[in-house]
Design brief:
single chain, alpha/beta, Spore Coat Polysaccharide Biosynthesis Protein SpsA, Chain A, 2 domains, 7 strands, about 50% helix
Length: about 325
Protein backbone atom coordinates (compact mmCIF):
# COMPACT_ATOMS: atom_id res chain seq x y z
CA UNK A 1 0.00 0.00 0.00
CA UNK A 2 1.36 3.40 -0.98
CA UNK A 3 -0.82 5.72 1.05
CA UNK A 4 -2.78 5.44 4.31
CA UNK A 5 -5.26 8.13 5.35
CA UNK A 6 -5.79 7.75 9.11
CA UNK A 7 -8.77 9.46 10.73
CA UNK A 8 -9.79 9.39 14.42
CA UNK A 9 -13.55 9.77 14.88
CA UNK A 10 -15.53 10.85 17.92
CA UNK A 11 -19.19 11.78 17.50
CA UNK A 12 -18.92 13.10 13.95
CA UNK A 13 -21.80 11.23 12.30
CA UNK A 14 -22.98 14.16 10.15
CA UNK A 15 -19.48 15.01 8.92
CA UNK A 16 -18.44 11.51 7.86
CA UNK A 17 -20.46 11.35 4.64
CA UNK A 18 -19.25 14.65 3.12
CA UNK A 19 -15.68 13.91 4.23
CA UNK A 20 -15.67 10.46 2.66
CA UNK A 21 -17.23 11.68 -0.60
CA UNK A 22 -14.55 14.35 -1.07
CA UNK A 23 -11.79 12.02 0.06
CA UNK A 24 -12.95 9.35 -2.41
CA UNK A 25 -12.83 11.80 -5.33
CA UNK A 26 -9.30 12.88 -4.40
CA UNK A 27 -7.99 9.33 -4.01
CA UNK A 28 -9.58 8.21 -7.29
CA UNK A 29 -7.45 10.80 -9.09
CA UNK A 30 -4.19 9.65 -7.51
CA UNK A 31 -1.94 7.07 -9.13
CA UNK A 32 -0.92 5.62 -5.76
CA UNK A 33 -2.80 2.81 -4.06
CA UNK A 34 -4.56 4.06 -0.93
CA UNK A 35 -6.55 3.00 2.11
CA UNK A 36 -8.66 4.93 4.59
CA UNK A 37 -8.40 3.91 8.25
CA UNK A 38 -11.21 5.25 10.43
CA UNK A 39 -10.86 4.71 14.19
CA UNK A 40 -14.11 5.10 16.11
CA UNK A 41 -12.95 6.46 19.45
CA UNK A 42 -15.95 5.35 21.52
CA UNK A 43 -18.53 7.53 19.73
CA UNK A 44 -21.95 7.67 21.37
CA UNK A 45 -23.87 8.90 18.30
CA UNK A 46 -24.41 7.04 15.02
CA UNK A 47 -20.80 7.30 13.87
CA UNK A 48 -20.10 3.59 14.34
CA UNK A 49 -22.96 2.48 12.10
CA UNK A 50 -22.09 5.11 9.51
CA UNK A 51 -18.49 3.92 9.37
CA UNK A 52 -19.57 0.29 8.98
CA UNK A 53 -21.75 1.27 6.02
CA UNK A 54 -18.85 3.11 4.40
CA UNK A 55 -16.58 0.08 4.86
CA UNK A 56 -19.24 -2.19 3.37
CA UNK A 57 -19.48 -0.03 0.26
CA UNK A 58 -15.76 0.62 -0.32
CA UNK A 59 -13.04 -2.01 0.27
CA UNK A 60 -10.47 0.76 0.69
CA UNK A 61 -12.20 1.80 3.92
CA UNK A 62 -11.09 0.02 7.09
CA UNK A 63 -12.72 0.66 10.46
CA UNK A 64 -11.37 0.10 13.98
CA UNK A 65 -13.85 0.43 16.86
CA UNK A 66 -12.28 1.19 20.23
CA UNK A 67 -14.04 -0.04 23.38
CA UNK A 68 -14.37 3.47 24.82
CA UNK A 69 -13.19 7.03 24.30
CA UNK A 70 -9.42 7.07 24.77
CA UNK A 71 -8.66 10.47 23.23
CA UNK A 72 -7.31 11.65 19.91
CA UNK A 73 -3.71 10.60 20.49
CA UNK A 74 -4.60 6.99 21.35
CA UNK A 75 -7.04 6.79 18.42
CA UNK A 76 -4.40 8.14 16.06
CA UNK A 77 -1.84 5.61 17.29
CA UNK A 78 -4.38 2.82 16.77
CA UNK A 79 -5.03 4.03 13.23
CA UNK A 80 -1.30 4.11 12.44
CA UNK A 81 -0.75 0.63 13.87
CA UNK A 82 -3.52 -0.81 11.68
CA UNK A 83 -2.33 1.01 8.54
CA UNK A 84 0.03 -0.42 5.94
CA UNK A 85 0.91 2.53 3.69
CA UNK A 86 4.44 3.76 3.09
CA UNK A 87 3.10 7.30 3.53
CA UNK A 88 0.71 8.14 6.37
CA UNK A 89 -1.59 11.16 6.30
CA UNK A 90 -3.66 11.89 9.43
CA UNK A 91 -6.80 13.99 9.12
CA UNK A 92 -9.54 15.30 11.39
CA UNK A 93 -13.02 13.85 10.94
CA UNK A 94 -14.84 17.16 11.45
CA UNK A 95 -14.51 18.26 7.83
CA UNK A 96 -12.27 21.22 8.56
CA UNK A 97 -9.24 19.64 6.85
CA UNK A 98 -9.51 19.60 3.06
CA UNK A 99 -8.67 16.28 1.31
CA UNK A 100 -7.80 18.28 -1.82
CA UNK A 101 -4.58 19.28 -0.03
CA UNK A 102 -3.36 15.67 -0.08
CA UNK A 103 -1.76 15.84 -3.58
CA UNK A 104 0.07 19.01 -2.52
CA UNK A 105 1.38 17.28 0.61
CA UNK A 106 2.57 14.33 -1.47
CA UNK A 107 4.30 16.63 -3.95
CA UNK A 108 6.13 18.38 -1.11
CA UNK A 109 7.10 15.03 0.38
CA UNK A 110 8.53 14.02 -3.01
CA UNK A 111 10.99 16.91 -2.79
CA UNK A 112 12.96 14.87 -0.25
CA UNK A 113 11.20 15.65 3.01
CA UNK A 114 10.18 13.06 5.57
CA UNK A 115 7.47 15.11 7.28
CA UNK A 116 5.22 17.77 5.77
CA UNK A 117 3.15 19.57 8.40
CA UNK A 118 -0.02 21.44 7.49
CA UNK A 119 -0.25 25.12 8.43
CA UNK A 120 -3.74 26.56 8.83
CA UNK A 121 -2.65 30.08 7.98
CA UNK A 122 -6.25 31.25 7.53
CA UNK A 123 -7.85 29.39 10.41
CA UNK A 124 -11.63 29.22 10.65
CA UNK A 125 -11.97 28.99 14.45
CA UNK A 126 -12.92 31.24 17.35
CA UNK A 127 -10.19 33.64 18.40
CA UNK A 128 -10.28 33.38 22.19
CA UNK A 129 -10.78 29.65 22.75
CA UNK A 130 -8.92 28.23 19.74
CA UNK A 131 -6.69 30.58 17.76
CA UNK A 132 -5.03 32.61 20.53
CA UNK A 133 -4.10 29.58 22.69
CA UNK A 134 -2.81 27.89 19.55
CA UNK A 135 -0.51 30.81 18.72
CA UNK A 136 0.96 30.77 22.23
CA UNK A 137 1.34 26.98 22.25
CA UNK A 138 3.04 26.90 18.83
CA UNK A 139 5.49 29.60 19.89
CA UNK A 140 6.34 27.73 23.10
CA UNK A 141 6.83 24.40 21.35
CA UNK A 142 8.96 25.89 18.59
CA UNK A 143 11.09 27.85 21.08
CA UNK A 144 11.63 25.04 23.58
CA UNK A 145 11.97 22.09 21.20
CA UNK A 146 13.79 23.89 18.38
CA UNK A 147 11.58 22.57 15.55
CA UNK A 148 10.15 25.71 13.96
CA UNK A 149 6.54 25.17 12.84
CA UNK A 150 3.64 27.61 12.79
CA UNK A 151 0.90 25.07 13.51
CA UNK A 152 1.64 21.99 15.56
CA UNK A 153 -2.07 21.49 16.20
CA UNK A 154 -3.00 20.89 12.56
CA UNK A 155 -3.78 17.19 12.23
CA UNK A 156 -3.32 17.21 8.45
CA UNK A 157 0.27 16.13 7.89
CA UNK A 158 2.20 13.69 5.72
CA UNK A 159 4.74 11.27 7.17
CA UNK A 160 6.99 8.63 5.75
CA UNK A 161 6.27 5.50 7.75
CA UNK A 162 9.92 4.98 8.63
CA UNK A 163 10.03 8.11 10.81
CA UNK A 164 6.97 7.35 12.95
CA UNK A 165 6.45 3.59 12.99
CA UNK A 166 8.34 3.23 16.31
CA UNK A 167 6.89 6.35 17.94
CA UNK A 168 4.72 5.71 21.01
CA UNK A 169 2.56 8.61 22.12
CA UNK A 170 0.46 9.29 25.21
CA UNK A 171 -1.65 12.13 26.59
CA UNK A 172 -2.02 14.91 24.01
CA UNK A 173 1.31 14.21 22.32
CA UNK A 174 0.06 13.54 18.79
CA UNK A 175 0.81 17.18 17.96
CA UNK A 176 4.48 16.56 18.83
CA UNK A 177 5.07 13.86 16.20
CA UNK A 178 7.18 16.26 14.05
CA UNK A 179 9.45 16.74 17.08
CA UNK A 180 9.88 12.98 17.50
CA UNK A 181 10.57 12.69 13.77
CA UNK A 182 13.19 15.46 13.95
CA UNK A 183 14.90 13.54 16.77
CA UNK A 184 15.23 10.62 14.34
CA UNK A 185 16.96 12.90 11.84
CA UNK A 186 13.90 13.44 9.63
CA UNK A 187 13.66 16.44 7.32
CA UNK A 188 10.64 18.46 8.42
CA UNK A 189 8.86 21.24 6.58
CA UNK A 190 5.40 22.79 6.49
CA UNK A 191 2.84 23.70 3.86
CA UNK A 192 -0.08 26.12 3.98
CA UNK A 193 -3.33 24.14 3.82
CA UNK A 194 -7.00 25.01 3.56
CA UNK A 195 -9.09 25.16 6.73
CA UNK A 196 -12.87 25.10 6.55
CA UNK A 197 -15.34 26.20 9.22
CA UNK A 198 -17.07 23.36 11.01
CA UNK A 199 -20.46 22.59 9.42
CA UNK A 200 -21.92 20.08 11.85
CA UNK A 201 -21.46 19.27 15.53
CA UNK A 202 -19.22 21.11 17.93
CA UNK A 203 -15.53 21.16 18.77
CA UNK A 204 -14.23 18.69 21.35
CA UNK A 205 -11.48 21.09 22.44
CA UNK A 206 -11.56 24.04 24.82
CA UNK A 207 -9.27 26.09 27.01
CA UNK A 208 -8.70 23.07 29.24
CA UNK A 209 -6.47 21.66 26.51
CA UNK A 210 -3.83 24.30 27.34
CA UNK A 211 -2.99 22.65 30.66
CA UNK A 212 -2.65 19.19 29.08
CA UNK A 213 -0.46 20.45 26.26
CA UNK A 214 1.76 22.39 28.69
CA UNK A 215 2.34 19.32 30.86
CA UNK A 216 3.08 17.17 27.82
CA UNK A 217 5.55 19.80 26.64
CA UNK A 218 7.38 19.60 29.99
CA UNK A 219 7.62 15.82 29.64
CA UNK A 220 8.88 16.17 26.08
CA UNK A 221 11.47 18.72 27.17
CA UNK A 222 12.77 16.30 29.81
CA UNK A 223 12.90 13.40 27.32
CA UNK A 224 14.81 15.56 24.85
CA UNK A 225 17.30 17.11 27.24
CA UNK A 226 17.79 14.62 30.06
CA UNK A 227 16.23 11.21 29.45
CA UNK A 228 19.59 9.45 29.10
CA UNK A 229 21.29 11.58 31.79
CA UNK A 230 18.68 12.50 34.42
CA UNK A 231 21.27 13.19 37.13
CA UNK A 232 22.56 16.09 35.05
CA UNK A 233 19.02 17.47 34.98
CA UNK A 234 17.94 16.96 38.59
CA UNK A 235 21.46 17.44 39.95
CA UNK A 236 21.51 21.04 38.77
CA UNK A 237 18.40 21.77 40.80
CA UNK A 238 19.88 19.94 43.77
CA UNK A 239 23.12 21.90 43.69
CA UNK A 240 21.27 25.17 43.11
CA UNK A 241 19.01 24.58 46.11
CA UNK A 242 21.98 23.47 48.20
CA UNK A 243 23.94 26.61 47.34
CA UNK A 244 20.89 28.76 48.06
CA UNK A 245 20.50 27.08 51.45
CA UNK A 246 24.13 27.84 52.32
CA UNK A 247 23.69 31.48 51.25
CA UNK A 248 20.51 31.86 53.32
CA UNK A 249 22.12 30.38 56.43
CA UNK A 250 25.19 32.58 55.92
CA UNK A 251 22.88 35.61 55.84
CA UNK A 252 21.27 34.46 59.08
CA UNK A 253 24.70 34.16 60.74
CA UNK A 254 25.71 37.61 59.47
CA UNK A 255 22.54 39.10 60.99
CA UNK A 256 23.30 37.35 64.30
CA UNK A 257 26.91 38.54 64.63
CA UNK A 258 26.77 41.95 62.93
CA UNK A 259 23.15 43.10 63.33
CA UNK A 260 22.44 41.51 66.70
CA UNK A 261 19.42 39.59 65.35
CA UNK A 262 19.05 36.19 66.99
CA UNK A 263 18.48 33.10 64.86
CA UNK A 264 15.12 32.58 66.56
CA UNK A 265 14.01 36.07 65.56
CA UNK A 266 14.19 35.38 61.82
CA UNK A 267 12.72 32.64 59.59
CA UNK A 268 15.99 32.36 57.69
CA UNK A 269 17.28 29.21 59.49
CA UNK A 270 14.01 27.39 58.76
CA UNK A 271 14.09 28.58 55.15
CA UNK A 272 17.68 27.39 54.81
CA UNK A 273 16.78 23.96 56.21
CA UNK A 274 13.79 23.62 53.88
CA UNK A 275 15.78 24.72 50.85
CA UNK A 276 18.65 22.38 51.72
CA UNK A 277 16.26 19.47 52.13
CA UNK A 278 14.77 20.25 48.71
CA UNK A 279 18.26 20.11 47.23
CA UNK A 280 18.90 16.71 48.81
CA UNK A 281 15.58 15.42 47.45
CA UNK A 282 16.47 16.57 43.94
CA UNK A 283 19.81 14.77 44.15
CA UNK A 284 18.14 11.57 45.38
CA UNK A 285 15.57 11.86 42.60
CA UNK A 286 18.42 12.10 40.10
CA UNK A 287 20.01 8.94 41.51
CA UNK A 288 16.71 7.03 41.30
CA UNK A 289 16.12 8.25 37.75
CA UNK A 290 19.62 7.15 36.73
CA UNK A 291 18.89 3.63 38.00
CA UNK A 292 15.58 3.57 36.12
CA UNK A 293 17.17 4.75 32.87
CA UNK A 294 19.89 2.11 33.03
CA UNK A 295 17.28 -0.56 33.74
CA UNK A 296 15.25 0.68 30.76
CA UNK A 297 18.11 0.57 28.25
CA UNK A 298 19.73 -2.64 29.50
CA UNK A 299 16.52 -4.66 29.88
CA UNK A 300 15.56 -3.92 26.27
CA UNK A 301 19.11 -4.08 24.94
CA UNK A 302 18.34 -0.66 23.51
CA UNK A 303 21.22 1.76 22.82
CA UNK A 304 20.75 5.48 23.57
CA UNK A 305 21.32 6.40 19.92
CA UNK A 306 19.91 5.86 16.41
CA UNK A 307 21.97 4.91 13.34
CA UNK A 308 20.97 6.36 9.97
CA UNK A 309 23.21 4.15 7.81
CA UNK A 310 26.58 2.38 7.78
CA UNK A 311 29.41 1.86 5.28
CA UNK A 312 31.51 -1.31 5.22
CA UNK A 313 30.08 -2.44 8.56
CA UNK A 314 29.20 -6.09 9.08
CA UNK A 315 27.05 -6.86 12.12
CA UNK A 316 27.59 -9.86 14.36
CA UNK A 317 24.30 -11.36 13.16
CA UNK A 318 25.37 -11.16 9.53
CA UNK A 319 28.71 -12.75 10.45
CA UNK A 320 26.85 -15.69 12.00
CA UNK A 321 24.67 -16.03 8.95
CA UNK A 322 27.66 -15.94 6.64
CA UNK A 323 29.49 -18.56 8.73
CA UNK A 324 26.44 -20.82 8.71
CA UNK A 325 26.09 -20.54 4.96
CA UNK A 326 29.80 -21.34 4.50
CA UNK A 327 29.54 -24.49 6.66
CA UNK A 328 26.52 -25.63 4.68
Amino acid sequence: MDLSIVIPVFNEEENLGPLYDLLKRVLDELSQSAEIIFVNDGSSDGSAARLDRLAGADPRVRVVHLRRNYGQTAALMAAISYSSGDIIIPMDSDGQNDPRDIPRLLAKLAEGYDVVSGWRKEREDTVVTRRLPSVVANWLISTIMGVKLHDYGCTLKAYRRAVIEEVRLYGEMHRFIPVYAAWEGARVTELVVTHHPRRFGRSKYGLGRIVRVTLDLLILYFIDRAFDRPMQFFGRFGLAFGGLAVAIFALALWLKFFADISLIQTPLPLLAATTGLSGILFLLLGVMAEVQVRTYYESQDKPPYKVRSTVNIVTAERCKQAAGAKRW
